[in-house]
Structures are given as C-alpha cells and as structure tokens.
Design brief:
This protein has helices spanning 15-25, 32-44, 50-60, 66-78, 121-133, 152-157, and strands at residues 2-5, 10-13, 82-86, 92-96, 105-109, 115-118, 144-147. By secondary structure, the chain is an alpha+beta fold. The chain is flat. The model is unreliable at 1-11 (pLDDT under 50).
Length: 159
C-alpha cells in the first residue's frame, strides 16, 4: 500500500490491486508469478534491472522466467506503476512510477554509476515558472544530473 499526500488529500494506492484491475480491464490473465515479480519490485524500493528483478523473484519462486519478468515490467510500465529509465549506460532500470506519488529527480555518477534520488521544491517551482513563461503546461518531466559522486576514487578519475 502506498500513501499519497498531495497536501489537499490523502489517497491509498495498492499497486497489486491496480495491476489486477488493469489486467482485468484489458482482458489479460493474472498469475502468481506476475504478482511475485510485482511484489519483489515494489518492496525493493530501488532502481532494478530485469536481471535484478529476476534474481529476487527466483528467491521466492524458482520457476520465474526472464520472459515473464520482461512481460510483467512492460505491463507495470503500461499501467503507470513502473517507469523504465535509461541512465548513462543505456541499460533499462525500473523504478516506481509517478502514479504512486513517488516523483523525484536523479544525480548519476558517471564513473561508478551511483544514483541518488532527490526532491527539491525550489527546482519544481522553477520548472513550473519556466514552463509558464514559455506558454507550456507541464504534464511530466525528468531531471537527470550527471557528474562525479563524493567517492574519492571517482573524484581521482576526474582529474
């Protein structure tokens, strides 16, 4: 269960129920393996590749296949519960979708690949101001800032 508090109201979103409803509306069959994959993904609360998800799901059910993980992540992406992100190396990493009230931006280390999620209201307000200035109504955005993290080894590589 995810609680979304937007300052005006509080909503409770159960991603598994949302996935089930989406599948029912689109004539898709549910399976225990799909639910296992979804549960592993939502409980991890980190960026995960298909291989990461497969490894974690197989600890729950050894019969989970890579193809089922790909199909389930595609499903979760289609219904807004997950987002596929392609950072510096181009590999798809999945994270919880904005539909669950988890909007954030990213700092990505170009050396070690470390990803830091952050939320800054000043940046959000500035983006809205800029969009308004140019006559845009924002519907979504992504911010990814690339650089070197504070790890001394990464800093040395940059010199």
């Amino acid at each position: 269960m995810v609680v979304i508090d937007n300052g005006e109201s509080v909503a409770r979103v159960d991603p598994i129920t949302t996935m089930r409803n989406y599948m029912a509306q689109h004539g898709m069959k549910n399976s225990r393996q799909r639910e296992t994959i979804a549960e592993v993904f939502f409980e991890a609360a980190r960026h995960m590749s298909v291989d990461d998800i497969l490894e974690a799901a197989r600890q729950v059910d050894s019969r989970v296949s890579q193809a089922t993980v790909y199909r389930t992540m595609k499903l979760l992406t289609e219904c807004g519960l997950a987002e596929a992100r392609h950072f510096n190396d181009g590999q798809a990493l999945y994270e919880v979708g904005d539909i669950l009230g988890h909007h954030h931006d990213h700092l990505i280390c170009i050396d070690c690949g470390k990803i830091v999620e952050f939320v800054d209201e000043r940046i959000e307000e500035l983006q809205t101001e800029i969009a308004t200035k140019y006559g845009f109504e924002l519907t979504q955005h992504r911010m990814e800032l690339y650089g070197r993290c504070g790890d001394p080894q990464c800093r040395e590589r940059g010199n």
